[in-house]
Amino acid sequence: MEEEEEDTYTKDGTVDYCGNPADKTKTGTWKACPYILGNECCERLAYYGMSSNLVVYFKYHLNQHSATASRNNLNWGGTCYITPLIGAFVADAYLGRYWTIASFSIIYVIGMALLTMSASIPGMKPTCHGKDNCQATDAQSAACFIALYLIALGTGGIKPCVSSYGADQFDDADEVEKKHKASFFNWFYLSINIGALVAASVLVWVQENVSWGLGFGIPAVAMAIAVGSFFSGTRLYRNQKPGGSPLTRIAQVVVAALRKHKVEVPTDKALLHETADTESLIKGSRKLDHTDDLRFFDKAAVEAQSDHIKDSINPWKLCTVTQVEEVKAIVRLLPIWATGIIFSAVYSQMGSLFVLQGETMNRYLGSTSFQIPAASVSIFDTISVIIWVPIYDRILVPVARRYTGHKNGITQLQRMGIGLVISIFAMLYAGVLELVRLRIVRRHNLYELEYIPSISVFWQVPQYFIIGCAEVFTFIGQLEFFYEQAPDAMRSTCSALSLTTVALGSYLSSLLLTIVTKASTKHGKLGWIPDNLNYGHLHYFFWLLAILSVLNLGAYLLIAKWYTYKKAVGTLRS
């Protein structure tokens, strides 16, 4: 009878909304996930509905040059993926994931409302004479950017927590639930792209053909729906207790190791300091088994006579093996994390240079007068993801599992590596397409034409489709990998860390744009990326990214070969 009662509760330390041990039959798993996936779908619809076409808004409504608009778009997009470090710290250390998502959502909604006002209220919105002839005052531009950076802060509390919170609904100690967790990450990413699909098709068209005020207002309403969806599932959620400041624990290990830098680490790992209890001293974390690499940090767990002078142990002088292994896990993740930056720089082109490239092509649908917004072509990236996620989850994984014996078909590291390879082809194709376009311009002297009639924007579809395929391998693999390899009490932090690759990819792309523009415009030259791309060499930039991607792949293969997986031991009771 007692064993049956034991089995009804989770063994990973999760609690229900009242703070009681989570009952498996009443909380978590797929019954809680629709609310989380619904929240993510609506939030991403709001985000992409605003961000997909932002570079066009900057260029034509805030009257910015092509390079400036692209750079501002990349910088803002990058910030949206840096702020998750703030939200993750708050979640892991103090509020927990549930309350962090709830509180930062309010900031997000305020930002969306202000952005809508800045594009719709006379006096706040730019003055326009015709569709694309607008002038914005400094105050109007400032209102727009204040709204955007409030949104960046809001998304910082949501993005690192939602994927981890969804994964928390599956008990790591239950093999059946654990198998479903791998599928959750696939469907989570699918929900992101369903939101993006609506944004890139309907909302971009509304922005360019109806009004920017309505085009930003609809995402604001979607964000309000996202908040409602999240709160609707409160009674069904499993919640991990916050484990205290992860930065403090990391600092304690580093300080203790430095203090004992002359101490020899015993060959017998049993001599290293660890609590005798079955559970870790860190709230919300299982014990971690000792690993043999990065042995310098083991010095923090070496017991000295001075460590036992007082009854209580000073954590700045002596740390447990689990605390040391937490730091090792983070250090091991960093090289893998770094190789994601170049991939994210490739990914960031969809919201910047791909859009500007599409503006120079024939965007009319057949012989009709309907003109497709250049940013809407990114819908094919979304469609690619929507196609590839079920294929990967339902076909590729079972087939690969038969040959490899691995529960997920292939390892997360192999999955990410395949995505890196695929992304190279996207840049090569984009470069070749631009070269073909420029040859037509030169052959027929079409330099002053706004777009090239003989090249349809649909020629961009393959580059978007290839990136979508690469995302399914690299980004979803990265989400799952950083969650699985993160210490239990640092999962939001590690999810945020994986997201920062998107930020740094945007910043790297922005930096490359700055360097390339400065270097290529010397001596009065127009450069690679002038305002009129017919006089430029945009393909050089795409091929530069392809070369960097090849070098990055080589580095990744070396790092992946070296990687040591973490070893969690035991279970955790709430």
Order of helices and strands: HHHHHEEHHHHEHHEHHEHHHE
Shape: globular
Total of helices: 16
Number of strands: 6
Mean pLDDT metric: 85
Provide the β-strand percentage band: under 5%
What composes the largest sheet? Answer: 2 strands, antiparallel
Structural class: mainly alpha
Q: Can you list the strand order of the major beta sheet?
A: 1-2
- Which parts are unreliable, with pLDDT below 50 for 5 consecutive residues or more? none
Instruction: Give the proportion of residues in helices.
Output: 55-70%
Description of the molecule:
This protein has 574 residues and is mainly α. It is built from 16 helices and six strands. The protein has helices spanning 2-7, 29-51, 54-60, 66-80, 84-120, 138-167, 175-209, 212-232, 246-259, 321-347, 353-359, 379-404, 412-444, 461-485, 491-520, 538-562, and strands spanning 127-128, 134-135, 287-288, 361-362, 452-456, 568-569. The strands form three sheets. The protein has a two-stranded antiparallel ribbon. Strands 3-6 form a two-stranded antiparallel ribbon. The chain has a two-stranded parallel sheet with strand order 4-5. A hairpin with a 5-residue loop joins β1 and β2 (134-135). α4 (66-80) packs antiparallel against α15, α7 packs antiparallel against α14 (461-485) and α10 packs antiparallel against α16. The longest helix is centred in the N-terminal third of the chain and has 37 residues, at 84-120. The chain is globular and about 80 Å long. The two termini are 20 Å apart. The mean pLDDT is 85.
